Structure formats: structure tokens, C-alpha cells
Amino acid sequence: MAQIHKLDVEYKAKCSAEKLYTMMTRDAPKLPNYAPQTINKCQVLPGDGEVRLGSIFVWDYVLGDKPSCVITKVKITAVDHKNMSLTYTVFEGHLTGDYPSFANMLAIIPTQRNGNNNCLVKWSAQYEKANEDVPEPTYFMKMLEDFTKELDTNLLKKE
């Protein structure tokens, strides 16, 4: 029986939860403008601007010290717009070789700090390794954390 592993990363963002969630859903194709160090392109299918159960994201992004970008295709397998959470399940791309199953969960939780509307961004990954020699995908979680920091910084600049 396959063993499911889990990794988590959190980031305390300074921008509002609503703004961040909108960028990760309806405005996702604009992400390269707000996180150009990480995201080269983000396509959402169907392209009607609505993210829903079954929507497909095609991510073209930079991963660590790799000389070229990688492409990953994910399907939205859970969505809760009210509570600002999404689950992306990888079905094609670089992660599928080492991890036969890989899902990312994103939760954006509104917080109040110093009278400002901030948020806590939680990324979780649940995955199965192809074999015991496959490393934990800490590099991927680091990329998600760096991406979130870059996005938060640039969203604040646009306010």
C-alpha cells in the first residue's frame, strides 16, 4: 500500500486575503506580472475567468536553480470560494515522475494586524513517492513560499 506524505508551509502576507485569493483564482493569468521571478505563464481552462471544480491550470514556472522553466498541469479537485481554499491535483508535468500522486492545498485565512487586513497563506502538499529513494519535495514547497512572498510584495506595491 502506498504511503501518503505531507508537507506544509505558511506565510504571513501583508496584503488582504481577498486580493490574494482573487489573484490565485479569477486573475491567475495575470500572475506573471506580479511574480515574474517565479511564474512565466499561468493559463486557466476554460478561459472564462471562473475557477471551479474541474478547472485546469497550466503552470509554467521557474523551479529553484534549474536553468529552464518547468510546466505542470493541475486540476481543481476541491474549491471553497467562501473560505478561500483550493486543492490542485497534478496530472501532468515534472512532478509526476517522482510522485505518482501529488496534490496541493491552498488556504488563505484573513487576519487583523495593527488595524490592517492581512492574511495567513497556507500551502500543503500531499503526495506519494514513486520509491523510497525519491526525496521529499521540499524544493517545491520552498518555491511556493518564495512565490507567495513575491506575489504579496508586488500586490502591496500596486495598492
Mean pLDDT: 92
Just give the CATH class: Alpha Beta
Structural class: alpha+beta
Low-confidence stretches: none
Question: For the terminal residues, how far apart are their CA atoms?
Answer: 50 Å
Number of domains: 1
CATH topology name, in short, is Alpha-D-Glucose-1,6-Bisphosphate, Chain A, domain 4
Detailed description of the structure:
By secondary structure, the chain is of the alpha+beta class. It has a single domain, classed as START domain (Alpha-D-Glucose-1,6-Bisphosphate, Chain A, domain 4, 2-Layer Sandwich), CATH 3.30.530.20. 23% of the residues lie in helices and 43% in strands. The protein has helices spanning 17-24, 31-34, 95-98, 138-157; strands spanning 4-13, 39-45, 56-61, 70-80, 85-93, 101-113, 116-128. A hairpin with a 2-residue loop joins strand 6 and strand 7 (116-128). The longest helix has 20 residues, at 138-157. It is globular, with a radius of gyration of 15 Å. The model has no long low-confidence stretch (mean pLDDT 92).
